[in-house]
Structures are given as C-alpha cells and as structure tokens.
Amino acid sequence: MANLFVLQLLNGVQLGVLLFLIAAGLTLVFGIMDVVNLAHGVLYMVGAYFVATFAALTGSFWWGLLLMLPAAVAVGLILEVVVIRRLYARSHLDQVLATFGLVMIANETVKIVWGVSPLSVPMPEILSGSVPLMGPLQYPVYRIAIIIAGLAVAGGLYLVINHTRIGMLLRAGATNRMMVSALGIDIGKLFAMVFTLGAVLACFAGALVAPILSVDTGMGESVLILTFVVVVIGGIGSIKGAFLGALLVAIVDTLGGVFGPILLREVLDPSAAGQAGRMLAPMLVYILMAAILFARPAGLFGGRA
Amino acid sequence: MQTKTTILATTALTLGLATGAAAQEVPPAAEDDVLKIGLIYTLSGPAAALGEQARNGFMLAAERMGEIGGMETEIVVIDDEQRPDKAADDARELVQREEVDFVVGPIFSNILVAIHQPVTETGTILISTNAGTSNFAGPDCHPNFFVTSYQNDQNHEVMGAYAEQQGYQNVFLMAPNYQAGKDSLAGFKHSYTGGVAGEVFTELGQLDFSSELAQIAAFQPDALFTFMPGGMGVNLVKQYDQAGLSSIPFLSAFTVDETTLPATQDAAVGLLGGANWAPDLDNEANAEFVSAYIEEYGHVPGTYAMQAYDAAQLINSAVSKVGGDLTDRDALRAALKEADFDSPRGDFSFGVNNYPVQDFYLVEAVKREDGMYGTSAQEKIFDDYVDTYAEQCQMGAS
Fold first, then answer.
1. In angstroms, what CA-CA distances link B61 with B65, B66, B114?
2. What span is annotated as the signal peptide, if there is one (chain B) (predicted)?
3. Which of A140, A240, B67, B385 is spaced 20 to 30 Å from A227 by Cα?
4. In chain A, which residues have their Cβ closer than 8 Å to the Cβ of B265?
C-alpha cells in the first residue's frame, strides 16, 4: 500500500505540473487582461497537433518540439490580434461567447486539417521504457521527464516574474492594470505578450503529453475545467498560486480516485465501491475549492476577490 | 408582444401534435421502382472513425453491386452526431419524407434505442450494423429489425470464456463508468468463474490511466480485461506499454481494433481481443472484401466496415429474391431472414430474434505483411453462438 501511495503521488505531481503549465497562462490572461478565455484549452490541443505534425515530418520528437515553439508563438499572436484584442473592452459574457465560438471553430478546423482519427506521437527512444521503483512497481521514464520539464519551466517563470522588469510589469498588471497604463506602459504590447506567453505554455503542455495521450480534438476541453479550478484556488493572476493550486488539485484528484474506492471496498461490494469511488474523486476537488474559497475568498494568493 | 409569443407557442405545439399523429399513418413504402436506403451513422465527433468505416463498408458493397437487388438504388447518408434526439428526428424524416425502404445503422446503442420505434412501427426495415442491445434481442424483438453485427454482450463473453480456458484465477477488470461499461464486465463474468483481482470503473472519456495502471502493477493479476472503445483505448494501450506491464496479458473487447490500431501501432501488437471476424479470416468472400476495401480507402477494414458490407449484401439478396417487389412485406422479411449471401465472416444465419448466429474468435493485434496494422484470428472460441437473450424473444405479428 505504501508503494502504491508513492507511485500515485508521482502520478499526481506529473498531472500537477501539466495543469500548472496550462493554468499559468490562463491565470495571467484573466488576471492581467481581464479576459475569460475558454479557448485556452484549444492551445493545448493545437500544441499537441503541432508536435505530432512536425515530429512526423522531421522524424524526430525533439525537432518537433523545437519547431512547435515558433508555431505556438505565431498562433498566440494571431489569436490575440484577430480575436482577443477586440474583447478587452467587452463584457465577460461577450468574451465567453466569442471564445466558446473559437473552441468550436478550432475543433472543426483541426478535423478538416488533420482528420477525425486520433494521431499518435512516437516517444523519443531515450525516454521510453520505465525504471523500477520498488518491488514489482515501475514508473515510466517519460513521466519523470514531464515532471522535470514542468518544474524547470516553473523555476524559469519564477525567475522571470520576480527578478526581471517584464515580471515586474506582469505583477503590477495583475494587481492594478489601470495604474500600469497610467504610468505610460504600452498596455497593448504587454497584453499581446502575456497572451502569447500563455499560448506557448499551453502548447508546450500539449506537446509534452502528446506521446502519452492520443492527440485528439476535444482534448483541450477535458483539461480546461480542472484548469479553471486551479486558477480559482490559486488566486487569479498569481503564478505562485497556480503552481500550488495545480499540485493540490492534481494530487487530490489522483489519490482520491485510487484510494477512495479502496477504502470504500471495506464497507461496500467491489463493483459498487468502484462506481461510488469514481464519483467521489471529482467531488473532492470541488469540495477542496469550496473549502479554500470559504477560508480565502480570493484564492490562496489572489490579490482581489 | 405577449400575444405574439402565444401565437408562436401555439403554432409550434400544433405542428408538434400534427407530426406526432402523422407517424402512425405512414404507408409502408412508396410504390416506385427505386430502392431507397437511408444510412444513419456517427460521422462527426470523437467516434467519427467508427461511423466512417461503416459507411465505407456499405458504400463499397453498393458500388461493387451497382444496382442493389437489380433495382435502381438511391442512398441517403445522415450523420447522427452521436445525439439520440437528432437521430430520432432523422429517422422520422427518412421514413416519412424520403420514404426509404431500408434504414441502416447506427454505431451506438443509445442511438439504436432512439431510432428503433420511429422506423420499425411504419413497416420500414431497420438493419443495425453494430449496436445490438439486449432488449431488442430478447423481449422487445421485432420482425422489422435485423442485426448484422452481434448482441452487445457476446464479444465480452468470448474474452470471459478465453480467460476461463486459460485457467486464470485473478483477473483485473476495468471499464468506463456508463451502461455499456457495466454490461461489458457483466458479459465477461457470464463466462468466467475465476476470481477478480480488482474492479475499476473509470470516467467516460478519461485519457490518462496512470493511476489505474499503478493499481494493476501493484495487484499483479493473471490478466487484465478491459473495454475502452475509441480514443480511451488508444491511450490505455500506449500507456500500458510504457508502464512496463506488457508481461500481464491484455484481454479486451472493442479496444484493440482496426479503428485504434493506426494510432497505437506497435504498442498494441500482441494484445488480445474477442470478435466475430478478422481481416485475415481464410475464405474467399473475405479476401475479396478486404483487398477491395484497402484498395478503395487505403486502410484496413474493421468489424464496423465488414458488418455494414454484409448489410448491403443482405439487402441485395432479399430484394433479388422478391424480384424487386417491396410492397409484400411478409415476403421481404422472409427473404431477409434467409440471409442468403456469402459473409466475409463465414457462417452466418439469423436466430429467432433476427440477431446473427455466428462464430466468435480470439483475435490478436499484428503488424500485417503490407506494413499496416490489423487484427488476426487466433482461435475459434464459440461455434454458431446464439446470444443468451434469444429465448426471451416472442416474435409476434408486426
């Protein structure tokens, strides 16, 4: 049981760093630009499709990953200029409608371009296989690589945000964007940069999971809801909050999903316990969110409620 | 303003009632010299690949025959978008406005339940090429309803019988938490009497199975049995391989097949499944079907394509038998029931409930000689297998 716990903790952390990569962009876009972006999951999906395409073209996952980055920057900039820029002055409802429309357009476009069948990305040779953990338990090398890559990005973001001028502007923008623009900062440029950064992070997350998940339309929506929970728990606009929130949500979700049914099996028959436990795990995440919001209405690190 | 709304609401209500009443009075079929067939398949969304295979299979047969049953043939294809409400409307439209003689489809059981009554109550023939729910096999069987696939439980029963035959004592069961998932595990247990290492229900549409795989690694069962159709199966298979669990036998149904193999490729090779057919079954009709399909569409056909192909062959045989006279429904039904055609799966006949009586095989995923991936029949598990609900069917007059 202890072995299983350690293994599931690793699984939780791995999901956590992915959620963090997606949530970081979402929390910045919402915190600084005040735009509710339902299409953020689309970027995650597009990242996965990019890496699938480029990896197939070049025959190497690493080239695919490298080529994905400029493509992600381009997609982020185009989206910002064509759609998102027009939404800054609009109400949240307009933003939700427009970005939801974007989700549908993007999903259909992806289907037209890449077809309806899920794509597959071959895993880089050096990271395939698994390492023995304890006893019969093994852990895939690639998932460890995801954890390391995610932590590295988190560390990089920490440095940028706390120790550079751009980071200072980002923090200032999240706290009071009116004041930032009043001080003579080109807010349009800052917004475009924030949105593109968020897009690249989400695309990067999508590219990282491509070798373990099938690349499919709709993969974005499945993570988007959890990401929103992460942003709310962490506090809108806070990268630190997004990091902590992502780990918290992922670990609660993973451990709840596994140990809920195991504990319930003590009192129920296995098949009923399996079903009840499956319902319990997603509930735990929302209970966690409710409890945190009760104690801290602005989230863990939120500046304003 | 308020009166306008009232008017609008009343109009809508009246129209609704009018169409409801019309459904009872539709004549059985239009009397003309055109054979009209409506296909209802899921052609968009995550499961679109399944519907496309089925449509391709039917169209392939239609193209090869030219005129089905010697009649001028018109085929209407409709995408049900995997929405039962839309499918029911589509089915009504096919029957009432298009006046089709046959409705063929769908992929999903919940769609079948939605379109069954609107089609069969008008005397139109419904041929399901995939979904085969237990209710229509048993107490709700209907003379206007034929199935060219299987009863839903059967592929799971095949795997249960295989596990039993291998003498497994400790099998780990995993399925998505919805009706078909529960039915699947029940079907497996129907023919498996050994112990259960663990029984896990996953969220429908789940894509990351890391925590479930960790449990399997911890329990070290004799084998895993799972039902994970579509994208879920692709992910599970890839992750199973990556987690280093390949030493534990992987038994499945509707998980490792020609719709998922292009995505899983080598990760799935060697995994086992249960099916009523495989592309490499050794008979003439099959060799012809598989090579024609690959030539036309460039990928290996799965059971979805084969079963739809057979539906076209079935219609062809019956319409030829009655000489193109579609007005005599009793003769048409009798001709259909004879199932006088060469199925790529070999033995094929209809049971009392119009569900197939056929053989079932253990199939294994392989890399084919042409470099593509497909399933390969390994062993016949059931011979002329009749589904377990057939005895509950009392086929009365329609």
1. 6, 8, 27
2. 1-23
3. A140
4. 120
The chain B residue lying nearest A250, using CA atoms, is B211
Helix axes A165-175, A141-163, angle to 10 degrees: 80
pLDDT digits (tens, 9 = 90+) for A104-136: 999 989 988 988 777 888 888 888 888 887 777
Dist CA A195 CA A219 (whole Å): 21
Whether A156 has a pLDDT exceeding 90, the answer reads yes
Cα B288 vs. chain centroid, distance in angstroms? 22
Interface contact flag, B196 A111, Cβ < 8 Å: no
Q: Which residue shows structure tokens 């999906």?
A: A45
- CA-nearest residue to A277 within chain B is B201
Among chain B residues, CA nearest to A253: B211
Greatest mean pLDDT among A184-198, B117-131, B176-190: B117-131
Taken in order A238, A240, A246, A248, is the CA torsion positive or negative?
negative
CA distance B278 to B128: 19
Would the pLDDT of B18 be above 70?
no
Tell me the average pLDDT across A81-103: 92
- Give yes or no for a contact between A23 and A230, defined as CB atoms under 8 angstroms apart: yes
pLDDT band for B32, please (50, 70, 90 cuts): low
CB atoms within 10 A of CB B80: 27
Q: How many CA atoms lie within 13 A of B90 on its CB side?
A: 25
Contact of B353 with B386, CB cutoff 8 Å? no
Closest residue in B to A269 (Cα–Cα): B199
Judge contact between B218 and A3, C-beta under 8 A.
Answer: yes
Residue ranges of domains in chain B: 1-150+280-358, 154-275
**pLDDT tens digit string along B63-120?**
999 889 889 999 999 999 888 999 999 999 999 999 999 999 899 988 999 999 999 9
What single-letter amino acid sits at A276?
A
Q: Indicate the residue type of B397.
A: A
**Mean pLDDT rounded to a whole number for chain B:** 88
Q: Give me the total of CB pairs closer than 8 Å, taking one residue from chain A and one from chain B.
A: 109
pLDDT value at B10 more than 50: no
Which CATH number describes the domain made up of A15-121+144-295? 1.10.3470
User: How far is it, in rounded angstroms, from Cα A237 to Cα A291?
Assistant: 20
CATH of B154-275 among 1.20.1250.20, 3.40.50.2300, 3.40.630.30, 1.10.1040.50:
3.40.50.2300
Chain B interface, Cβ < 8 Å to A: 44-46, 48-49, 52, 177, 185, 196, 198-203, 205, 207-208, 210-212, 214-215, 217-218, 220, 231, 234-235, 238-239, 242-244, 259, 262-265
Rounded to the nearest 10 degrees, how much is the dihedral formed by the CA atoms of B260, B265, B266, B270? 40
Class of domain B1-150+280-358: alpha beta
